[in-house]
Amino acid sequence: MSAFLARAGDGGLGANGAALVWRVARALVPALTTVLFTLVVMLPWGLDGLLVSLPPLLVLTMIFAWVVRRPRLMPVVLVFALGAVVDVVTASPLGFWAFLFLVGQAGGLQVARLQPGWPSLAALFSFLVVSPGVIGLAWLIQSAYFARAADAAPLLESLKLAWFALPAIVLLVALVDRRFVHRRGRALGHMSRRDGASSSLSSDVARSGGTGSQALAAKVIP
Fold it and tell me: Do 34 and 62 meet the contact criterion of CB atoms below 8 Å apart?
């Protein structure tokens, strides 16, 4: 990616063109990784009834980790679409997981505004606080939908396993972010500074050349 950006800058796009390419590529990283993660965890793994909610909770964990780290790169439309896909795959009432994913995203956005610059630790500890609220809301929706108290055991068992997977998911998000997002930003910054230095040098040369030409004209044409 950095080599492509460098060629783009050398090929005439300049800092502005390379910046545009970078923004598009950077914006797609969280979305693509979350979509791929969703496709993997939603495969038919043969989980029993107690763990039927585990794959959706793992997807929610990934969404939450990305929202805390890169809140602007995890749009609401994508989160809702992922939830709708999970609803279809799990045969849940349409909008059930989509709504819960949006609630989890809202919690992650609040954490992103308040966290002091340690997104991995913030995601770890805040998810332990936000996720029980999401599970409680899920239980209330299920109970209202079936007009009776729903069995909370599947949700609680899935939540415990999601907590065990939380450090690995947060670490995965951090590694992807540093490898494909944050590092590319530094590369683009170096490219922009290089282009800026070249433009400044060209301007200095032009001004110097203009001054010399004027002096020569003054001598030749008195």
Answer: yes
How many CA atoms within 13 Å lie on the side-chain side of 56?
A: 33
Q: Mean of the pLDDT values across residues 189-194?
A: 44
Count CA atoms closer than 13 A to 85's CA, side-chain side: 20
The answer to whether residues 81 and 101 touch, using CB atoms and an 8 Å cutoff, is no
Are the C-beta atoms of 56 and 98 separated by less than 8 Å? Answer: no
Length of the chain measured in residues: 222
Q: Which amino acid is at 74?
A: M
Locate 200 and state its tokens: 């400044």
126: helix, coil or strand?
helix
The token pair that represents 193 in the structure block: 């500074």
- How many of the other CB atoms lie within 10 Å of CB of 208? 10
Q: Are 190 and 9 in contact (CB under 8 A)?
A: no
What angle (nearest 5°) sits at the alpha carbon of residue 27, between those of residues 22 and 31? 140
Q: Phi and psi of 221, rounded to 5°? A: -110, 100
CA–CA distance, 139 with 50 (Å, rounded to integer): 14
Q: How far apart are the first and last CA of the chain?
A: 58
Please tell me whether the overall predicted TM-score, pTM, comes out greater than 0.85 for this model. no
Per residue in 96-130, pLDDT tens? 999 999 999 999 999 999 876 788 898 999 999 99
